[in-house]
């Protein structure tokens, strides 16, 4: 059985790396985690692999995927 993949699309590299570090500490997380700071890099990855869950920053405005659970994040202070 192949690993499930959780992809994170976050344009801010520092935040993306901090979030990745946080998630990697959660040992029971049932996903392999991949982080992307550019939509083009995610598109290239999708040519070779399947993503089960995509966590995308709302500002990325990424809506082109079918068959993937797409979750958006937003800044609570702005809402």
Parts with pLDDT < 50 across at least 5 consecutive residues? none
Gyration radius over CA: 12 Å
Distance between the termini: 41 Å
Shape assignment: globular
What amount of the residues lies in strands?
25-35%
Decide which structural class fits the backbone: alpha/beta
Helix content: 25-40%
Core attributes:
79 residues, alpha/beta, four-stranded parallel beta sheet, globular
Description:
- The termini are far apart.
- The protein contains two helices and four strands.
- The mean pLDDT is 79.
- It is globular.
- With 79 residues, it is of the alpha/beta class.
- It has helices at 13-24, 39-46; strands spanning 4-9, 31-36, 53-57, 69-73.
- A four-stranded parallel sheet has the order 2-1-3-4.
- Helix 1 (13-24) links the parallel strand 1 (4-9) and strand 2.
Helix-strand blueprint:
Blueprint: E1 4-9, H1 13-24, E2 31-36, H2 39-46, E3 53-57, E4 69-73
Parallel strand pairs: 1-2, 1-3, 3-4
Summarize the structure.
The protein has two helices and four strands. It has helices at 13-24, 39-46, and strands spanning 4-9, 31-36, 53-57, 69-73.
